[in-house]
């Protein structure tokens, strides 16, 4: 019953500890799908970040930074495109007719792939790891070979992939800005 004493239709709530990059529910069985702060994580680190002779193409960065080569940025973008397209296809199969999705994830407010909260936060973490290398506490190769399986897309990138999928219409997009200063 709701607060007014009216009877609510039967409903089931489920939270699953599994990858979004596999089928989670039976076909056309979900009426509302909600994802909160998971979709910036990728299914894997982009392939190809290790160049010839163990040269790591993203240098000392674990994510996209100001000095990340455009070829590396493209690898992160392609991994996002592949994963998010798969996510949309799988959720489309699971959603009932007129089903809805609410997706909340980290991203960028503009198209500049070198800016954004994730770039800043993971840049600080990269600097911290580099200071451990300088102190001799961590091997440089371990830091240089480490890349996060993450990508913070722009609203434009998300919108384009949703439209390209042909499976969904966007009813509403809201950008929330986070102030990281205390």
Automatic annotation (TrEMBL):
- Entries under InterPro entries matching the protein: MeTrfase_7 (IPR005299), MeTrfase_capping (IPR042086), SAM-dependent_MTases_sf (IPR029063)
Protein keywords: Magnesium, Metal-binding
List the Gene3D superfamilies.
Answer: Methyltransferase, alpha-helical capping domain (1.10.1200.270), Vaccinia Virus protein VP39 (3.40.50.150)
Pfam family for this entry, one: Methyltransf_7
* Organism of origin: Aegilops tauschii subsp. strangulata
Q: Signal peptide location in the record?
A: none
A GO molecular function assigned to this protein is:
metal ion binding
State the superkingdom.
Answer: Eukaryota
Q: Which SUPFAM superfamilies match?
A: S-adenosyl-L-methionine-dependent methyltransferases (SSF53335)
Q: What is the lineage of its organism?
A: Eukaryota, Viridiplantae, Streptophyta, Embryophyta, Tracheophyta
Q: Can you say what this protein is called?
A: Uncharacterized protein
């Amino acid at each position: 019953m709701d607060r007014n004493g009216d009877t609510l239709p039967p409903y089931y709530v489920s939270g699953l500890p599994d990858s979004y990059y596999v089928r989670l529910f039976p076909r056309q069985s979900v009426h509302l799908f909600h994802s909160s702060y998971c979709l910036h994580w990728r299914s894997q680190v982009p392939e190809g970040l290790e160049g010839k002779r163990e040269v790591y193409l993203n240098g000392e960065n674990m994510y996209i930074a100001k000095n990340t080569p455009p070829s590396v940025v493209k690898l992160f973008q392609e991994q996002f495109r592949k994963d998010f397209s798969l996510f949309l296809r799988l959720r489309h199969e699971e959603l009932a007719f007129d089903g809805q999705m609410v997706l909340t994830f980290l991203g960028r407010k503009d198209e500049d792939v070198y800016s954004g909260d994730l770039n800043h936060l993971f840049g600080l973490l990269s600097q911290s790891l580099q200071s451990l290398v300088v102190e001799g506490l961590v091997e440089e190769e371990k830091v240089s070979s480490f890349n996060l399986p993450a990508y913070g897309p722009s609203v434009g990138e998300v919108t384009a992939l949703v439209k390209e999928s042909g499976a969904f219409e966007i009813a509403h997009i809201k950008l929330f800005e986070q102030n990281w200063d205390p």
